[in-house]
Amino acid sequence: MGKLSGITVIDLTQFLPGPMMTVMMADHGARVIKIEPPAGDPARDQGPFEAGHSVWFANCNRGKESRALDLKSEAGKVALAELCREADVFVEGFRPGVMPRLGFDHEAVRALNPGIVYCSITAFGQDGALAQHPAHDMAVQALAGFLAVNDGPDGVPVVPGVASSDMAAGLTALSAVLMALLGRERSGEGAYIDCAMFDSLLPWCAHTAGSAIAGGESPRSASQRSLGGAGFYQVYRTADGRHVALGGREIKFAKVLLAALGREDLLPYAEAPAGEQEPLIAFLRETFSAKTRDEWVEWFADKDVAFAPVLDFREALDQPHVAERGLLVETKGGAHHIAPPIRFAGEQWEPGAVPELPSTLR
């Protein structure tokens, strides 16, 4: 029995933000009924594949039930309406205007079930100048200012390694739905949630874009303490072409490292404002280039410094820490799943089955 046992979720989402949100509900006992188009969620066809399923699809849709409904047909509409009458949560991820055309906007679903919590996840929200603008994650990051500081020393933005606006929207939608369910326990009333990827991502810049938030200039990576302007929050190349990271700007870490390297004279630069630490950064670049990444790992082993080797995903997932925490789970069928980040003491978790796509109800 999970924390969400007894909660039924109708999930009309595809790709990443919605499925990531609803799989977290399924992982904790909610009954999630995934409504797919006749061709299925496009993520089903995205490789690589393992144990008969896309790894992406499996990790975002395990533990759900799947129904293939043609929502343009009368039979499909009737079937969805029946499901809505008994559901607690309705989640959709279409562009604004699609659900009214299908006959399942919030007002229509609320008429079927006044207590339902209805959540729409879109790129830019249900209204505003950008509401109809097509976008996946990177375009949202570009328009929100985040891509501009996802740059290298040359100032050129690069493709992000994390779909931050997708994930921010999934987490925001989950939080909002759980709040609404808690509120319904007290009031008996459902709720409507307009969750936008753009809106969800913006608060993530509070620690880096303070000057712009306050009405001033936009921060630049080379002069911002968390974006590349500080010596102790920086990535350095090693002798073997790999990289290491210093990930803590607290002066106590600088004292330990610079003392060990015999360069305590550089300590004032570690205390200087971001953008004024170039002598320190230059010294650390030269220093780290003298040993291989793994030699530095060994060298740092007995030093209390916020240091880390830059690992690829294979190396990261093979770390003892991942096994000790049970973060990568293999099923009896040989499929691998990343464990949910929310886990409760005393509760055991194992991946639910990945839903097959049933025949379409037309």
TrEMBL record:
Transmembrane residues, as ranges?
Answer: none
GO MF terms held by the record = transferase activity
EC numbers listed for it are 2.8.3.-
- Which InterPro entries does this one have? CoA-transferase_III (IPR050509), CoA-Trfase_fam_III (IPR003673), CoA-Trfase_III_dom3_sf (IPR044855), CoA-Trfase_III_dom_1_sf (IPR023606)
Q: Which domain of life is it from?
A: Bacteria
Q: Mind listing the UniProt keywords for this protein, alphabetically?
A: Transferase
Q: What class of enzyme is it?
A: transferase
Q: Which PANTHER family does the record cross-reference, listed alphabetically?
A: ALPHA-METHYLACYL-COA RACEMASE, SUCCINYL-COA--D-CITRAMALATE COA-TRANSFERASE
Instruction: Give the protein name, as stated in the record.
Output: CoA transferase
- Origin species, per record, is Qipengyuania benthica
